[in-house]
Write a structure and sequence with these properties.
mainly alpha; Multidrug efflux transporter AcrB transmembrane fold; two-stranded antiparallel ribbon; 12 helices; 70% helix; 2% strand; elongated
């Protein structure tokens, strides 16, 4: 916190001015009547009167306390807003003679970012659930859909990790990165597993021959496809707009991570676990 502006601070300063700037008089007067009398002296100064009315109304029943913060980050604002809310609940309980509530840009930022955080993880979970629901009928196996979801999950984790490393905050624009990366990333395991299943179960190839065929044709094409998509999104990193730079970098990172996972980790897991939807 950098400081605060309130009617109490204004009254202390005014009391000091009326006492020839005596440092000892930088305090509140002993009675409310004295405060009202000192405030009434401001009627001769419209600018000072207007400044006072920005902090308290003319009937002295509604006051505004402004707090200046030195940080605009959500994690700092959250700590302050939650602490102030707890203090208000403690000192100004509902139904009491004095009521207090939070307002202003910081309070607004805290609530809408909190809403984004909650809805963001819910949307990512819904996206993953939809991937499983849509892929299960295609492979006629929920296990196959789960295998396809592995690179997509890696893409989401890579996106979050990059955002954390680069200090990119989660906001309205950046909240969609993970879901977009997941939607594009799921293409690679779908093609890989579908061609493996066709080579093993339809063409009757052995495991080694099936992987050799798939890697020489399908994986080669998918690698060029993934590289082209990553480069296309990475071009946005040259933009002057931060949101476009972040968008290009996050999507390229997620797709790149999913592509590498699909062609390295996923085949190793398939050979190790030998799922029935591939080997029968």
């Amino acid at each position: 916190m950098k400081g605060s502006i309130s009617a109490a601070a204004f009254a202390r300063k005014l009391n000091q001015i009326l006492h020839q700037w005596d440092p000892k008089e930088l305090r509140l007067p002993e009675s409310t009547e004295v405060v009202k009398e000192q405030f009434s002296l401001l009627d001769s100064s419209p600018s000072k009167k207007a400044e006072l009315l920005r902090m308290i109304d003319s009937s002295y029943t509604l006051a505004n306390v402004r707090i200046r913060l030195s940080s605009g980050r959500y994690r700092d604002e959250r700590r302050i807003v939650e602490a102030l809310h707890a203090e208000i609940q403690r000192h100004f309980p509902p139904g009491g003679p004095v009521r207090a509530e939070l307002s202003g840009r910081v309070n607004l930022d805290y609530h809408w970012v909190s809403l984004i955080v909650r809805s963001h993880f819910l949307s990512v979970g819904c996206s993953l659930t939809l991937v499983l629901i849509l892929l299960a009928p295609m492979f006629r196996s929920l296990v196959a859909a789960a295998y396809c979801a592995v690179p997509a999950v890696i893409a989401v984790l890579a996106t979050y990790a990059t955002m954390s490393l680069l200090g990119i905050p989660l906001g309205i624009g950046t909240s969609m990165f993970a879901s977009l990366a997941m939607g594009v990333a799921v293409n690679f395991p779908i093609h890989l597993l579908d061609r493996l299943r066709h080579s093993i179960r339809v063409q009757g190839l052995g495991e080694k021959d099936a992987f050799a065929l798939v890697y020489s044709l399908t994986v080669k094409a998918l690698l060029f496809n993934g590289a082209a998509i990553c480069c296309g999104f990475a071009v946005l990193c040259l933009s002057d707009l931060p949101i476009l730079r972040h968008f290009g970098l996050m999507i390229a990172t997620g797709i790149g991570a999913a592509c590498l996972t699909s062609f390295t980790l996923l085949p190793a897991v398939v050979v190790w676990l030998r799922p029935k939807f591939l080997y029968g």
